[in-house]
Amino acid sequence: MTSRATDAPPLPIREEAGLSGAEAERRLARYGRNEVAPPRPTPLHQRVLGQLRDPLIMVLLGAALLTIAIGDHPDAVVIALVVVVNTTVGVAQEIRADRAVAALSALSAPHARVLRDGAPDDVPTALVVPGDTLLLGEGDIVAADAELTDASALLTDESMLTGESEPVARTAGERVSAGTVVVRGRGVATATATGPASTFGRIAALLDGGHEPTPLQRRLASLGRVLAAATLALCVLFFALGLVHGLPAGTMAVTAISLAVAAVPESLPAVVTLALALGARRMAARSALVRRLPAVETLGSVSVLATDKTGTLTEGRMVVQHVWTPEGSADISGTGYGPDGRLLRDGRPLTPAEARPVRELLMAASLCNDAGLRPPPDEAGDWTPVGDPMEAALLSSAAKAQCPPPAELRQLCPRTAEAPFDPLRKRMTTLHHLPDGNVLVCLKGAPESVLDTTVLDAEPGLLDEARRQADTLARRGFRVLAVAGAERLWQPLPAGRAEHGLRLLGLAAISDPPKPTAAATLAACRAAGITPIMITGDHPATAHAIAVRTGVVEDGPVGTVLTGPELAAAPDTDLTAVRVFARTDPQQKLDIVRAWRARGAVTAMTGDGVNDGPALRQADIGVAMGARGTEVARQAADLVLTDDELSTVVTAVEEGRRVYDNIRRFLVYALAGGTAEIMVMLAGPLLGLPLPLRAGQILWINLLTHGLTGVAMGAEPAAPDAMRRPPRPPRQHILAAGVWQRLLVLAATVTAVSLLAGTTARALGLPWQSVLFLALLASQLGVALGLRARLLTTANPFLPASVAASALLATAALYLPVLQSLLDTEPVSPSGTCLAAAAALAAFATARLLRGAFHRKARP
Fold first, then answer.
1. Count of CB atoms within 10 A of residue 496's CB?
2. The pTM is what?
3. CA 302/CA 524 separation, integer angstroms
4. What CATH code would you report for 21-31+111-204?
5. Of 433, 420, 300, 317, nearest to 370 (Cα)?
6. Alpha helices per DSSP H over 108-147
7. Are strands 133-136 and 119-124 parallel, antiparallel or unpaired?
8. CA distance 301 to 729
């Protein structure tokens, strides 16, 4: 029994053996990998120079030279230390982010089907070598320049190379180029050029491989320029006030410059890049592979999720459960793709006479079929489909009906021509050579495409009955296929011209139950403010049944489903008012996505076929299925689900919200601290503190707060309510929704408690400048802890550890002689320490209270 359904139809029309594995290895060593040479890694010295060219760092270097010129060597050493540490951290973050992006690129590398050692194999495109036999099917991206040895109705999209929008028909003997897309048909080709020697490789070598900044990075860069201008203006004011109070011009200049550098979060771009890259790595670990870094940011704003049905909301493990023929109907027992099962009618096995029309239908469906079945690797394993799961289910049902094995059928009736399935025609036809010299025509497709007098030679009553049966089965949630056939005298006709005068063999009802997690996943989407819609090519009744069972829509009339023909007849329909679409074509999928985007929604769309490619590219986030998706869909998508689970999209959205929240949290923390430092320096002299902090002390605070602690904030876990609030508007300013209000309150709090600690210490005769230094640093660390969404979580131990480390280094600045000399600090008494601790506690409490006060507006 195990041999019945093991053989997939051979892709080539003539036998090919392909290269051996050993020969492929030799050619790989000779010709190199089939990829464009990656850009040379940036040398370390260029990374360092890039960091030193930052305008704020250049200002800091100027301050170092100025301190040396005026003999202020301790401040010069501190400035140099800050430059070294900032540059080291910046370079380390660049390298880490580049490695994360490179790892993601390796994970998303395309694959190709080749013949190796006489058997089909799926290999990374980079391992394809000249001489390889390429097996090309709909949705594949051609892996190398190649010469076609066989082709069947082959159309390729060459727009990425030639700019021509129309697909090009290709026949045996012609050449196909690397990077082109198979949009229809099948073919076999021998690779002739790979890597840089291919057409695509020569063009790609002319391109600049530099990385463009993400939209978020561009918005933050713009914000940074505004902040820098405002900060420099305030520092000029501080310098002027110092001169008015009679302080030395050199000291005031160095202090003003240091204050400007400390007040602006110059590490923000690096923190953003690292947060996006690490967020993408975390998604990859949770089966969501991000192919483009900006998608991490965009995911947090998704407000509409357009999903297909088969394999996404449903299990994709299809089984033929019911067959209707003009002579009678039958149920087919058994589950999965295995051959174990029987033909039953009213619970009893069919007689040979009753089974004959059922077997005739299933044999025709087996011949008009491009799938295969792989037997289990061991007794405990399951049969698995090779190719389209629906076609594999037809092969399985034929095995259960005791039909001849597919390999035997194909040997007895070899295929001579075919009209492949087309989303517009919604049917597939194959022609087979019979032993007596005649031709067998086999056709299967959607009922509305097959049950037509232009295709079938049948009485109107029979067609009406077949349509009623198809509609009844579809309303029960089955996917229904109509099968037809006819025997003709031999004649060299294209398969498409044989689609007339056929005999109706019957209907096959295929079950594809909803995934157990589908309803909960869509409920989670709605809780997160994401509107789910279904777009499928299935019958409207089937689509409606699955939509109700998964919660896309509530139970109601099937008329709530909009079909492709209805949409074509009424193009002005408001597409955003519909939640279920059936029998749609590729252009209509594109129209649906565009309609939602025109309304201002941020769309995510799932897909797996070549016809989904345009809509995946049009959507803000294209989501492809990694296991069952075509190469075109995977390469067009921003997100690839390696487990084919829709719930992974929800996980990815949560991760996107986490990344964005953490970036805003860092921004609040860094800008509040920087603003507080400026206000302390401006208000201090008015309270009797002539020079509140020295340049070295300011830079030391900046180093400890923006360095360890700032980077650790990027690893904070998602807020508990991250998926219970609506998505943020895509054009919302980074400081909107209560962020700037919270920032100002925190800056005022840190300023007030720090100055209070300093003035109190001065009144008590304590070393007030050292107390002020410690209080300002401690209060910022208190804000860092107070901004946490999950206060006592152990999910990110790096933040409390970095706060503790920064506190220790702050204490060391007061007690280590070397740091005392560099920073001009003094040890403080327990009373001074208590003042700094009180400032930290007050800042922490304010940050926690603000989380409640602004809970509905901002959740960074």
1. 16
2. 0.70
3. 13
4. 2.70.150.10
5. 420
6. none
7. unpaired
8. 6
Phi, psi of 397 (to 5 degrees): -65, -35
Q: List the domain boundaries for the chain.
A: 21-31+111-204, 44-102+217-285+652-853, 288-313+515-644, 319-511
Q: What is the pLDDT of residues 51-91, one digit of tens each?
A: 777 655 665 666 667 667 656 566 667 667 767 766 776 67
- Orientation of helix 215-244 relative to helix 249-263, angle to 10°: 160
From the list 308, 422, 538, 612, the catalytic residue is: 308
- C-beta neighbour count of 503 within 10 angstroms: 15
- Dump the DSSP string for 620-659: SEEEEETTTS-HHHHHH-SEEETT--THHHHHHHHHHHHH
Contact 354, 328 (CB under 8 A): yes
Q: Which of 316, 318, 313, 310 is nearest to 336 (CA)?
A: 318
**Predicted local distance difference test score (pLDDT) of residue 16:** 53
Which residues on neighbouring strands pair with residue 329, listed in sequence order? 324
- Main-chain phi, psi angles of 19, to 5 degrees: -80, 155
Name every residue whose Cβ is closer than 8 Å to that of residue 801 and which is 6 or more positions away in sequence. 712
Q: Could you say which DSSP state residue 708 is in?
A: I
- Domain boundaries 44-102+217-285+652-853, CATH class: mainly alpha
Residue with the two structure tokens 């689970």: 645
Element (H, E) at 811: helix 798-815
Pairing of strands 372-374, 384-386: antiparallel
Tokens 């892996």 identify what position?
Answer: 143
CATH for 319-511, options being 3.40.50.2300, 3.40.1110.10, 3.40.228.10, 3.50.50.60: 3.40.1110.10
782 Rama sector, left if φ>0, alpha if ψ -120 to 50, beta otherwise? alpha
How far is Cα 839 from Cα 842, in angstroms, rounded to an integer? 5
Catalytic residue check, 471? no
pLDDT over threshold 80, residue 653: yes
Nearest to 236 by CA among 259, 220, 202, 203: 259
Count the Cβ atoms, other than its own, within 10 Å of residue 613: 26
Secondary-structure percent of the chain, ordered helix, strand, coil, rounded to 5: 50, 15, 35
pLDDT by residue (tens digit) across 27-41? 988 888 887 665 567
C-alpha Rg value of the chain to the nearest Å? 34
User: Rounded mean pLDDT of the chain?
Assistant: 82
Q: Which CATH architecture has domain 288-313+515-644?
A: 3-Layer(aba) Sandwich (3.40)
Most confident range (mean pLDDT) of 114-118, 294-298, 461-465, 719-723 is 461-465
For residue 777, report the phi and psi dihedrals to the nearest 5 degrees: -70, -45
Q: Give pLDDT tens digits for 487-545.
A: 988 776 777 788 999 999 999 999 888 888 899 999 999 999 999 999 988 888 888 88
Q: Do domains 21-31+111-204 and 319-511 have the same CATH topology?
A: no
Query: Alpha-carbon distance 75 to 751, whole Å?
Result: 24
Please list, in sequence order, all residues whose beta carbon lies within 8 angstroms of the beta carbon of residue 793, skipping any fewer than 6 positions away. Answer: 717
Angle between helices 647-683 and 268-285 (to 10 degrees): 160
How open is the CA angle 640-643-647, to the nearest 5 degrees? Answer: 85
**Residue corresponding to tokens 């006030």:** 241
CA distance 859 to 409: 64
